[in-house]
Amino acid sequence: MSYSPESVVYQLKVVLLSISPMIWRRLLVHSDSTIADLHYILQIVMGWTDSHLHQFTIHGKRYGIAQPGGVWFSDDPRQVKLSDFCFREQEKFLYEYDFGDSWQHQIRVEAIVSSEPNQDYPICIGGKRAAQARRLWWSMAIHGTAARVFSVLHHCSPFRNFFRRFGARQRGNCGLPRGSAYSPEMVEPRPLRLPSG
Fold first, then answer.
1. Which of 13-17, 68-72, 144-148 has the highest mean pLDDT?
2. N or C: at which end does the chain have fewer Cβ atoms within 10 angstroms?
3. Residue 173 in contact with residue 182, Cβ under 8 Å?
4. Which CATH number applies to 9-191: 3.40.50.360, 3.10.290.30, 3.30.310.50, 3.30.420.140?
5. For range 80-92, the mean pLDDT
6. Whole-number mean pLDDT of the chain?
7. Do the Cβ atoms of 123 and 137 come closer than 8 Å?
8. pTM score, two decimals?
9. Contact (CB, 8 A) for 56 and 62
10. What whole-number distance in Å separates Cα of residue 131 and Cα of residue 67?
């Protein structure tokens, strides 16, 4: 993606609401990124599978990528840039993923900074705790939010299918390498590669 020279970088903190202990990510995202870009960024950094409906609520309006049989949005998410919202520092908006389980993500603009010329964006620069479905099940079971536990169980199968579709057949349950130890603290700060097209 090419960025305009006057674009800035948003430092975003993404918090998955209603989960304890807190699951969060800190991202650096170019202001020229689109709503569609931000959706894919969130799918990658949170470990979701992009197999459910989603929506952003920004300044009281809904945005997202329409799916057949799902929610329709009035704006093309590939044309709406983050810079169009004129975000201010500390401003917040919501991202909801999976309308059945309603995973609510609060996104806060922590800082607005100049882009560094030799830095790839977007980049995940920090976070705490893993957010994939089976991992969330354990977190919820341990921390007493059992009301959602049964609705989360079905997520593991679509997650395995996600990895099969993209050729990572050596993976075990929910995408963990076979025989690997799970750590709920697993977060990997890294540059992100968005789907092309």
1. 13-17
2. C
3. no
4. 3.10.290.30
5. 97
6. 75
7. no
8. 0.69
9. yes
10. 23
Q: Estimate the crossing angle of helix 133-142 against helix 156-165, to 10 degrees.
A: 160
Residue ranges of domains in the chain: 9-191
User: Count of alpha carbons within 13 Å of 34, Cβ hemisphere only?
Assistant: 16
Q: Are 27 and 187 in contact (CB under 8 A)?
A: no
How confident is the model at residue 73, as a pLDDT?
Answer: 93
Separation CA 77–CA 79 (nearest Å): 5
Closest by Cα among 184, 4, 171, 174 to 84: 4
Mean pLDDT confidence for 80-87: 97
pLDDT of residue 181: 44
Q: Looking at per-residue confidence, does 185 or 141 come out higher?
A: 185
In degrees, rounded to 5, the angle at the alpha carbon of residue 90 between the alpha carbons of residues 87 and 94 is: 70
**Nearest alpha-carbon partner for 40 in 164, 197, 163, 170:** 197
